Amino acid sequence: MTPEENYHDWLRDAHAMEQQAESMLSKMAGRLEHYPELETRIKQHIDETKQQQVWLNELLDRHGIDNSSFKDVMGKASAFGQAVGGMFTSDEVVKGAISGYVFENFEIASYTSLIGAAEQVGDAEGVRILTQIREQEIAMAEWLYQHLPNVTQQFLLRSAEPGVEAKK
Amino acid sequence: MTPEENYHDWLRDAHAMEQQAESMLSKMAGRLEHYPELETRIKQHIDETKQQQVWLNELLDRHGIDNSSFKDVMGKASAFGQAVGGMFTSDEVVKGAISGYVFENFEIASYTSLIGAAEQVGDAEGVRILTQIREQEIAMAEWLYQHLPNVTQQFLLRSAEPGVEAKK
Asked: What does B18-72 look like in DSSP terms, one character per residue?
């Protein structure tokens, strides 16, 4: 395969990954009840994720990559992404926050690899857009990392009180 | 559940997570043929992972947590960890490096949460050991992050050459 062919395949995967991200983040935000700060930050990132899908669509269009092939590639990207995303089904807030952090880092690594590919095929506009998206993923990952000790401690306090819902 | 009970459960999970890390890293290092720098770094981290298991065992002993219960907890930790770890079965070096980075970040998030729990239950020695382990995970994640563009570009070059094995 040529570098361009690999790059185009990975761009399709990135778009599928963002569709999956939106679905998982929405489920997680919908389940949360007692962690409003976490819920607000996740909802903000859902908006960012939708914007990222638009940027990726524009990038795919510029390379003449057919949108109808998304369906085929979803299976492939899903098998990989669902391995991480499956963890979102937990209703336990600590595992959810950890899973969110892990998924963000899956995205960060994917974009880092994609940026390397974009450089190699000489797609300067791709480098710019992919770097811009990666910055939003890094910001989300850092927010979760900073708030994870507090979410954990809130969970432990709620979990110790009889009759208080701690998990979501 | 009391904070201590949750903390002890999560310490068991961390030990199971490191057993899984050792297994996955060993499989990945065993498959690599044409990426010697990556292979060397993974092997170094396998040694660190074994040392981490010893540190975690000492911590579990100090809290009187029975080692025989590992077997029961493995299922629970595995279901969560395998979701990430399953990605290691790919023989494609780029996906492997991404998966490695993702798994390291799963460990970083787990220890960050655990350190928050250790602080809450007043286990200063736990905070010290868990922070020490987390530093090794951060170093491994950063190495993979820094080397991911180069691994990707090597893969693209090899992939474009007829008759050259690129994937492992």
From this structure: HHHHHHHHHHHHHH-SS-HHHHHHHHHHHHHHHHHHHHHHHHHHHTT--GGGHHH
Which of B24, B84, B131 should one mutate to test binding to chain A, selecting the residue with the greatest count of A CBs within 10 A? B84
Q: Which of residues 122-141 of B touch A (CB under 8 A)?
A: 141
* Tokens linked to A83: 């391995």
How many Å apart are CA B79 and CA A47, to the nearest integer? Answer: 30
Q: What do you get for the CA distance between the two ends of chain A, in Å?
A: 46
Residues in B touching A1 (Cβ below 8 Å): 159-160
CA A66 to chain centre: 23
Contact A6, A117 (CB under 8 A): yes
> Are the CB atoms for A5 and A63 separated by under 8 Å?
no
Cα–Cα distance measured from residue B36 to residue A129, given in angstroms and rounded to the nearest whole number:
32
- Residues of chain A contacting residue B9, judged by C-beta atoms under 8 Å apart: none
HEC profile of A101-139: HHHHHHHHHHHHHHHHHHHHHCCHHHHHHHHHHHHHHHH
Give me the amino acid identity at B129: I
Full set of structural domains in chain B with CATH: 3-159 (1.20.1260.10)
**Contact residues on chain A for B127, CB-CB shorter than 8 A:** none
User: Using one digit for the tens of pLDDT, what is the confidence trace for A59-113?
Assistant: 999 999 876 655 555 555 555 556 655 555 556 899 889 889 988 999 999 999 9
Is A109 in Cβ contact with B102 (below 8 Å)? yes
Q: Where are the alpha helices (DSSP H) in A63-92?
A: 70-85
d(CA A149, CA B136): 19
* Integer CA distances (angstroms), A65 to A7, A132, B144, B152, B157, in order: 11, 21, 30, 21, 22
Nearest CB to B149 within list A6, A115, A141: A115
pTM of the model as a whole:
0.91
